[in-house]
Amino acid sequence: MDDMKDYGQIEFIFKKPQNFEGCTLLNGWHGIGECGFISMSHLVDNLKAERIGFIITNNIPQFITIKNEKITFPFEIYRKDDLVVVLPIFEPIKSEHLAFTKTLVEWSIDEKFKQSILIGGLDRRLKDENEIKAIYTQAFKEKRPEVEIPILDEGLYVTGPLAYMLMFYELNDFPSVALLPYAERSRPDPIAASVAVSAINSVLNIEINVQELLEEAERIEKEIESLLQASKTRKETDVDSDKGMFV
């Protein structure tokens, strides 16, 4: 590797030096309906983004798999032009959530990204007439007033890594938005992920095809269930693991 950014507990390792100034960071977690992970995976595949680097932590999950004849890492970084996707194949262990998310925010600010788009999910049982809600940092609202996705209702809460990232972006006056489609809590939900991708299209004025998500919903659900089972196996041996689902 030609480039590494060391933040103590967290390292960003790249195949070659990168200039991220003016880029948009995209990130999604394994929350309700797996919307974040499914939408980010679809984005990477549809854009034919290049895997440019990896994130290594002190307690990185001890799992790999194979995709496109390459070893996949738990935390990967992809890039297509000015779009950079941080793809967590697995979540960090619960005890690393704070350090991981705080460092990811710090790194994106240090590297002069211009904005971040985060993906989560909302329990479909709470759905109103909208398909998606959003949470904006104040800096995002000021810089992107044209984005008019309805804001999350008061009284509903975001938890887990996504909540941490929103906190730290707000504290640093950084433009960030979390897109939260309504999704099935009990299973992976590619349909909800397609709503998230459509919202990304609107925010970024790009055209990522979402039809594949709808057509391949069954295959995607099986792949995600396999990842969830591997993650469950890891968590059963981790006394500090989280037993719930994150927004």
Summarize the structure.
The chain is an alpha/beta fold and 247 residues long.
Describe what this molecule looks like in 3D.
34% of the residues lie in helices and 24% in strands. The termini are far apart. Mean pLDDT is 89; it is low at 239-246. A hairpin with a 3-residue loop joins strand 1 and strand 2. It has one domain: 3-Layer(aba) Sandwich (Rossmann fold), CATH 3.40.50.10900. Helix 1 crosses helix 5 (190-204) and helix 2 (97-110) packs across helix 4. It has helices at residues 35-47, 97-110, 138-143, 161-171, 190-204, 211-215, 217-236, and strands at 3-6, 10-14, 24-28, 50-57, 65-67, 70-72, 75-80, 83-88, 115-119, 122-123, 132-136, 176-183. The strands form two sheets. Strands 1, 2, 3, 4, 7, 8, 9, 10, 11 and 12 form a ten-stranded mixed beta sheet that branches. A two-stranded antiparallel sheet has the order 5-6. The chain is of the alpha/beta class.
**Radius of gyration, CA atoms, in whole angstroms:** 17 Å
Assign an overall shape: globular
CATH structural architecture: 3-Layer(aba) Sandwich
SS strand fraction: 15-25%
Structural class: alpha/beta
Number of structural units classed as domains? 1
The number of helical runs is 7
Key words describing this protein structure:
single chain; 247 residues; alpha/beta; Rossmann fold; ten-stranded mixed sheet; two-stranded antiparallel sheet; 7 helices; 12 strands; disordered C terminus
